[in-house]
Design goal:
Layout: H1 18-28, H2 32-40, H3 43-53, E1 62-66, H4 72-79, E2 84-89, H5 92-99, E3 108-112, E4 125-131, H6 140-150, E5 151-161, H7 168-190, H8 193-204, H9 209-217, E6 221-227, E7 234-240
Parallel strand pairs: 1-2, 1-4, 2-3, 4-5
Antiparallel strand pairs: 5-7, 6-7
Length: 241
């Protein structure tokens, strides 16, 4: 990273945190993927592949990658046969980092935009995926309204995230990992340990998996959910009725 001081970390749960979240991810962009691979021992990639598989047959599909970051899920959706990916994130540096890894001419449209107001028409997408992004967006209900709006009837959504833990085991694992490993390891790799303290705290300020499933169901989705292994991340899948 450059010698410039890192931006002030956002406060988990603060409804006015959006601009600080944007600055944080722009600062993390150059080493974000490396930190993910090291801190998860590569498991984040396996989790993402499972999320893309949960979207079903993507051959010829239009897919929205929400909170797309450095475009890991975008590349996986293309590998699965998607005809086009609309990649949305409000941290431009993250998208620029991901763009550099796309093949020339890849059918991907990048949108620097807020997840609460997607720049896409109604019913545009056959599928929508989001990996580890919704915890950082205020007004979760507005985001889910937008997801329902841009998906066609029968379209599928797959959300992979660290939801607020509900079981004793998941609480223990997340407390141990997120309070100790993330700030130390993330700080060493990126030089921005406060960002990883924020990311850990954002889990406590987020909804549980059960609460998230209920929010999706209230918007007309048939919903299922499962925990990943180890049970720190979860995948929620919905089909728009």
């Amino acid at each position: 990273m450059s010698g410039a001081p890192p931006p002030a970390a956002p406060v988990p749960g603060d409804p006015a945190r959006a601009e600080r979240v944007r600055a944080m991810f722009d600062a993390l962009a150059p080493r974000y993927d490396l930190a993910n691979r090291v801190l998860s021992l590569g498991l984040d990639q396996a989790w993402r592949r499972r999320a893309v598989r949960a979207l079903g047959d993507l051959r010829g599909a239009v897919v929205v990658d929400l909170c797309a970051g450095t475009l890991d899920l975008t590349r996986m959706a293309l590998d699965a046969g998607a005809a086009r990916v609309e990649a949305v994130d409000f941290a431009e540096a993250m998208l620029r980092t991901g763009r550099a890894r796309l093949a020339a001419g890849a059918p991907v449209e990048l949108h620097v935009a807020d997840a609460r107001a997607l720049p896409l028409p109604d019913g545009r997408a056959d599928a929508l995926c989001c990996g580890f992004g919704l915890r950082n967006v205020p007004e979760l209900e507005r985001v889910l309204d937008e997801c329902a709006r841009v998906l066609r009837p029968g379209g599928r959504v797959a959300v992979l995230d660290f939801f607020r833990p509900e079981t004793a085991l998941s609480r223990f694992l997340q407390a141990t990992y997120n309070r100790l490993v993330l700030p130390v390891g993330g700080g060493l790799i990126t030089g921005f340990s406060e960002a990883y303290r924020y990311l850990a705290g954002s889990i406590d300020a987020f909804v549980s998996r059960g609460e998230f499933e209920a929010l999706l169901a209230a918007r007309g989705f048939a919903v299922s959910g499962r925990d990943m292994l180890p049970p720190v991340a979860s995948l929620v899948v919905g089909v728009r009725r």
